[in-house]
Amino acid sequence: MTRLNLIPLLYIKILSIKNNLKTLSKEGVFKFSFLLIVAFLFLVLDYFFFYRVIKYIFSLEDTIGSILILQLLRVIFITFLSMLFFSNIIASLSTLYISSDLELLMNLPVPSYSAFIFKFIQTLFNSSWMIAMFGFPIFLALGRIYGMELKFYFILLFLFIPFAMLSANAGILITMFLVRLFPVRKTYQIMTFLGGIFAIGLIFLIRFSEPEKLLGRKVTDDMIVSFLKSLEVPDYWFLPSTWATEAIRYSLDGRYIGTYKMLWLFYATSIITFAVVVFIASKIYFHGVIRSRESNSFRLLPDGLKQNGIKEKVLRKNNSIRGNFLEKDIKLFLRDPTKWSQIFMLLGLVVIYFFNIYNLPLDTFFLKNLVSFMNLGLAGFVLSALAVRFVYPAISLEGQSMWILISGPVDYKSYIWGKFFIFFVPLLLISESLIVISNLILEVDSYMMLLSVVTMFFITLAIVGLGVGFSAIYPKFRFEDPAQVSASTGGILFMIISLVYVGLTIVLEAGPVYSYFNYKVFYRNVGGMWVYFSYLGIVILSIITAYFPLRAGMKRLEKIEI
Amino acid sequence: MISLDCLTKYYGNFQALKKITLNISKGEFLGFLGPNGAGKTTTIKILTGLAKPSDGRVTIGGFDVVREPLKTKSIVGYIPDNPYLYEKLTGREMLRLVGVIYKMNNVNIEKKSEGFFEMFGLSQYGNELIESYSHGMKQKLAISMALIHEPRVLVVDEPMVGLDPQGAKIVRELFRGLSRNGTTIFMSTHIMEEAEKLCDRIGIIAKGELVAGGTIKELWEKSNQKDGRLEEIFLELTDTVTS
């Protein structure tokens, strides 16, 4: 009965994917190919990194080698398990309770458990494909180094299915109970926030364990042992990550009977827990969906956001359209934790950025100042990445409410400049902090400090201008997730142009910096008028990069139809 | 007050509007009727600046909608059929933002907002986030947004969708009062009774062409339904075009 009803549901999904591919525009093909290339490069890098690490471990003494491989597998599986667990909670909140096709699904004459299983499969796929993709090169490297036969890779595939399913069972079960207790959207926002904290914690863990030490030439066995010991992870017998580690260990040792036993354990547990989850879902899932559709309970705003807040009073003095748009954007941002939780992620990455600079083994004037100069390029790249996530979607984020602005007497020039300043000020603060703090850590001289600060000002101006301009040129008002806007063709094009701009700026500034280093290190004067022309070139390039997209954006808005 | 002169609109090769010519005087209440896909929404979008004409000219209050968009928009109020609003703003904040866009002063915005909240029974929900409003409440808020700056022209797309009977009654009376006081109203609707009761004149569009226009009496004369209801006249006139 279930199977009969499940097939048409899955068929709907397959048909939509097929139709999407069939009607792919030129823009879509470009985007798809670009993402495919990026993904492929990432997988190649992933493979070579782990190949090198595993090969090194493999070359060690037998006992140390096998202990370390075991430790590495434990770390990998526990990381995958926790990532799968979190992403299943977040994905299931969206697919099981928020998704737009739910109303149609609920009205179809299919048993409730069919609809649930359909959504379960969707969640399982959405939350685990990326981990499967990331994990594949790791185990390919492991298999190649250990000279494993084809059987090993089939075992991996059959291992991953129940491994992912167990995480989905646990994640979805927790989601169903959470939705019984709290409003769906609030839960989604909190879980996305916790997911962000978890991700940044993971990045900290990896970065502060200083894995680069293992890539040097003079790596002692003690260093490797102490590194892997520092990655101590729980290996309780009841954790699926422990079972997976054991299954792989048996295979590597050639004791396949042990592996099959672990597989049997995996399948038995995942099927039994799945049956339990389906049973519980039949009791509470539909009630939860209905409740989530009815959760129109009124909420008073926190005191700070009410009409009499201090911020309101300050902003209200200014009755300008620009001031009020600023107020609106700040409110929309602060009241949606899924948006501001990314700030924590950003702060975490900034800490790692400084940690990287601090850890560089630099001792001469030349090296320190050279790194400071190269750091401009790196900060420019960070700024571009931030801009594609926050600035580029600026106008698209008006969403379907854009009709309010277009049908009103809004001067687009003022609107666009308003958007520009909303982003320019905070991004300038971030980019200049990156540069000034890095330069202080590097102890550069006053010339390099001044040069970096002024250059960063122009880089920020150009990238924010480019971002806001592109935001208006390629608006995408219909989206389910703001991340879709950043990943659109316009977003990719913005990223490419902004990186080319950063590259050109560095090239233009290389001349004056070369002349300065010659003067300071070799007491040679190789400068001349061209140095000033280079500086002028950067100013002109930055203004052009900001101005023309902004102007094109304004023109585009004047002609926009929604 | 509103003048459409040979208004034409293409979407790619598809001609959505075919040389529509229509004049609406000050204070007149026009009902714009037509089957699905006839071009009603396209016409409304052009009147409100959400779409641009491919050919022809549209003026509102003497201002050209393409050449003087800001002047046109400042005298027009628009009520869409499906009001997408900023879900994370409160009702009061939304009205305030719109008031500022129309360059109203703070005192006037507050006074007008409270008036609308009271009229629509939304006073206690004014400080709630819009995301918690029902469709009907959003529609009432959208009507308040369109009227807060006292527009000379009101463009309305299916205004009664989602409104409860009390709300619909309030809106009907509100529109009648506005029309009496000189506001020109351009209303698209599918509800024939609504158009019959409220409008001074009816325009019927089918397949992008204006197939008939005039008072109910004039439409009777044009059709074979000498004493029929508007619904029969509408079906007869649109059938001729669509068949």
Automatic annotation (TrEMBL), chain A:
Transmembrane portions of the chain: 29-51, 72-98, 128-146, 152-178, 190-208, 264-286, 340-358, 370-392, 420-441, 447-473, 485-508, 528-550
Keyword Membrane among UniProt keywords: yes
Keyword Zinc: no
Keywords: Membrane, Transmembrane, Transmembrane helix
InterPro entries according to UniProt: ABC_tran_2 (IPR031599)
Signal peptide residue numbers: none
Pfam families: ABC_tran_2 (PF16949)
Origin: domain of life: Bacteria
The name this protein goes by in its record: Uncharacterized protein
Natural source organism: Candidatus Schekmanbacteria bacterium RIFCSPLOWO2_12_FULL_38_15
Lineage of source species: Bacteria, Candidatus Schekmaniibacteriota
UniProtKB/TrEMBL annotation, chain B:
Transmembrane stretches, start-end: none
Official protein name in the record: ABC transporter
Pfam families cross-referenced by the UniProt entry: ABC_tran
GO MF annotation: an example: ATP binding
Superkingdom classification of source: Bacteria
Domain ABC transporter: start-end pairs: 2-232
SMART domains in alphabetical order: AAA
Keywords (A to Z) from UniProt: ATP-binding, Nucleotide-binding, Transport
Alphabetical list of SUPFAM superfamilies matching this protein: P-loop containing nucleoside triphosphate hydrolases
